[in-house]
Amino acid sequence: MAKLDATAPQPIQLKDYLPPAFLIDKVDLTFDLDEDHSRVTSRLVLHRNPAHPDTRAPLRLDGRELELEALRLDGEPLDGSRYELDAESLTIASMPDNAILEIVTVIHPETNTSLNGLYRSGANFYSQCEAEGFRKITYYLDRPDVMARFTTTIVADKAKWPVLLSNGNKVGEGALDRNRHWVKWVDPFKKPAYLFALVAGKLSKLADKFTTASGREVALEIWVEPADLDKCDHAMASVKKSMAWDEQRYGLEYDLDTYMIVAVGDFNMGAMENKGLNIFNTKYVLARPDTATDIDFDGIESVIAHEYFHNWTGNRVTCRDWFQLSLKEGLTVFRDQEFSADMGSAPVQRIEAVRALRTHQFAEDAGPMAHPVRPESYIEINNFYTVTVYEKGAEVVRMYQTLLGRDGFRRGMDLYFKRHDGQAVTCDDFRAAMADANGYDLDQFARWYSQAGTPRLTVRGRYDAAARSYTLEVAQSCPATPGQAEKLPFHIPLALGLVGPDGADLPLRLAGETEATAGTRVLSVKGARETFVFEDLAVEPVPSLLRNFSAPVQLDFPYTRAQLIHLLAHDGDAFCRWEAGQTLMLQDLQGLIEAARAGKPLALADDFVAAMRQVLADEALDPALVALMLTLPAETYLADGQAGHGLDIDPDAIRAGREAMKLGLAQALRGEFKQAYVRLQDDGPYRFEAAAVARRSLRNVALSYLGELDEPVLIELAGKQYAAANNMTDAQAALAVLVNWAEGDAALAAFAAKWAHDALVMDKWFTLQAGSRRLGTVAQVQRLMQHPAFSLANPNKVRSLVGAFVHNNLAGFHAADGSGYDFAADTILAVDKLNPQMAARLAGCFNRWKKLEPGRRGLMHAAIERVAGHAGLSRDVYEIVSKNLQ
Ligand code: B3K
Ligand code: ZN
Questions:
Q1: CA distance 639 to 589
Q2: Using an 8 Å Cβ cutoff, are 336 and 306 in contact?
Q3: Ligand 1 centroid to 837 CA: how many Å?
Q4: Distance from C-alpha of 731 to C-alpha of 767, rounded to nearest angstrom
Q5: Out of 197, 232, 250, 741, which could bridge 277 as a Cys pair, Cβ 3.0 to 4.6 Å?
Q6: Sheet of 38-48, strand order
Q7: Mean pLDDT across the stretch 557-579?
């Protein structure tokens, strides 16, 4: 194996956690910003932490890529013999119990391409400190359990950087010599360094206000490049909705006088919840009907909510250490999901969340990076901002609510804030608040935090006509994951109903109970095997299991096709109704893929086509649900399904099978799709409202099916929609059809000419091509990387083109000659030099290598080894490739 030796980066372990030796009460920062270097003066008021076991422990401050200019302890300059410096830290061995430490460092944001710490984007300065970026600004105890009060003074040239922002409330500003000016900010709340933020530059603001439930007025400001000011209205409306929702649902109010959001085009992730000064990727702020799709509008609403909700779940109560990341992220994702459910259609939101969980998180759980919701070790913490910590973490929080009820969950939240406001705590503290507020035993529930892997719930049903009873045998197991061979049973909430022949739910009475209950019931499954007997059933029911996806598990129940079709037509639970259709679809897709592999003809089953026809004809169903029912699972999800059945992944067969289903449905339901397309036409102005979004989603699904048919009149239909569209949703959907045909070339050229000035719209242009079956090839992606709008230094561009190709275009990326793997390796190494976090995200494209068919497996293995053997690899990429090679 290449170069994975003892000098390699070592993991940090949860079991080694120790409280910090010192605590910081107060931090005064002064930034002197300039073009070719910036100076940071930090004054720390420190005291020894009585909770640390060694009362004479040295003070070890974190710091990276810093030039130390001055160091003073209690006013006296420290000479070189009193401290030690290395690439990662500054250590002062002999420290008084109380001290004032002054540190002056010089930093170079202008050459910082990692977008971590303080960096430049265009001519402006922005910061990103989570998880460990503050140590690139000054020497500090850069860990979340050190919470301090910050004041920040920023000094800069007034013409070049007229707007100077930091956390908290602005308390003063003034002019200085040489055309410079200063602004001072005070944040009255103590916070860890990862929530620090600074922005400086030429920005314009959209201003508004919000009055809290207790009557305080909060100034709302969204800061963007002046040209983008007309794209902030939706973001502002989303802020106000989020503030009102958190008051109503959780009694949580905003706590500063000003709430600021800044948008920047160079950003590693979606957004960041810095106290009072959220910094956002432009993708999650800027929207106008002609530039942003319904999915973008929805994403903005939910990311704005997410960052706003962090003010309580993350900022007021934060994490003790980074292993506890899901404490704030799982909880905040759950909160934003609940918010989105209240803003739009709850079933649609839920189905979309489950689709995303299954496509991405189940894959992570089944691969080399599998880790528990609370990981036990990491090499680079930035690699653990994962779908497991976020999305599975949100499912774990949802399970508390499913077990305790909405009121019980609220009682738990109230107790959590009462106990821990202003503290840095653990996932166990959260679980204890939920348990104590409800007098409910959540001891076994702790395993959701410590055990990785997707549990499998195997259910079998037996109807006894003579006894009029229905028995459910429930067994659970969980596959081995790296470092965890054996798993103990989970505490699983299993929500279910029993559906009668007329489609209605039957009353549920378990053996031993006196009264039946109506509708859905939540069973608490704790054992490896359990039996539940329902009584008084005159007819055999169809079980509707895991309603609303009550736990993040794989369900195994041997449904007959007739039972699935019955649930698809009648289940009162929208999730299970969708799920029944998906199960049918998945069964038939697996059959088609097998047929493609064996070189047999690919034909759709009649009962499946009939079921889909009925779905499409059902005008009483929300069109958004119909659209979801007709949406095929992603190629990567099908690949994981193959691997789950013990088969080698064959990307060509998967593509062939999936396309056969799409084409088959398009041929069989041509008339119905055409009718739906006409019926759902909307001639009014664009509105981002659930009903209008739903209509557009189904209409565009219909178009995408029709666009499979090689008929000039249908391709023309897409062309007409493109030309007539008054919004980006319809324009993009039409272009997505056109790119698969030669007619797409002219449309793509017109699109690029029209939108060359708009970076976010150009991202769509790259993604459409990266995912196209006609254009999504290694050679074409390489050509597009030469396009003037592309940049390897911009994460949005890398994600839209390279990320979209290597992560989502299964057949394109996995070209049989291995050219996709070489391309990925080269690109990862090139990006790693600029931005290790970004490179590590790309390296995730190797995670399925062991499951590929032998030819591709060998080729991908070689590409991974090449990356792993590269000298000077970042810790970030090293961790991903080394775990792949283990
Ligand atoms: N907390 C940030 C993510 C920081 C990622 C650092 N690599 C955004 C969020 O989850 O809200
Ligand atoms: Zn978050």
A1: 11
A2: yes
A3: 12
A4: 14
A5: 197
A6: 76-77, 67-73, 98-107, 38-48, 22-32, 148-157, 180-191, 169-175
A7: 98
Q: Quick one: pLDDT at residue 5?
A: 55
CB 816 within 8 A of CB 831: no
Say if residues 159 and 33 touch (Cβ distance below 8 Å): no
Residues paired with 542 in a beta bridge: 499
Residues written for the chain: 886
307 classed as catalytic: yes
Sequence-ordered list of residues with C-beta below 8 angstroms from that of 396, at least 6 positions apart, any chain: 326, 330, 373, 448, 449, 552
Buried b (16+ CB within 10 A) or exposed e, 776-800: bbbebbbebbebebbebebbbbbbb
Q: CA 20 to CA 45: how far, in whole Å?
A: 15
Q: How many CB atoms lie within 10 A of CB 676?
A: 26
Distance from C-alpha of 66 to C-alpha of 87, rounded to nearest angstrom: 9
Q: Which residue has the tokens 């396309």?
A: 659
- For 326-366, give the DSSP string: HHHHHHHHHHHHHHHHHHS-HHHHHHHHHHHIIIIIHHHHT
What's the gap in Å between 539 CA and the centre of ligand 1?
52
User: Residues 223-237: pLDDT tens digits?
Assistant: 999 999 999 999 999
Examine the pLDDT at 2 and tell me if it is beyond 60. no
| Ligand 1 mutation target, pool 130, 132, 388, most atoms within 8 A of CB | 130
In which order are the strands placed within the sheet that holds 271-272? 204-211, 217-224, 258-264, 277-281, 271-272
Distance between Cα 329 and ligand 1 center (Å): 8
Tokens of 21: 């030796």
How far lies 256's CA from each of 173, 189, 301, 538, in Å? 19, 9, 21, 61
pLDDT at 6 (0 to 100): 55
Give the whole-angstrom CA distance, residue 400 versus residue 432: 11
Cα angle: 636, vertex 601, 642; to 5 degrees:
25
Helix (H, G, I), strand (E, B) or coil at 189: strand
In contact, 616 and 636? CB cutoff 8 Å: no
Out of 221, 225, 307, 865, pick the active-site residue.
307
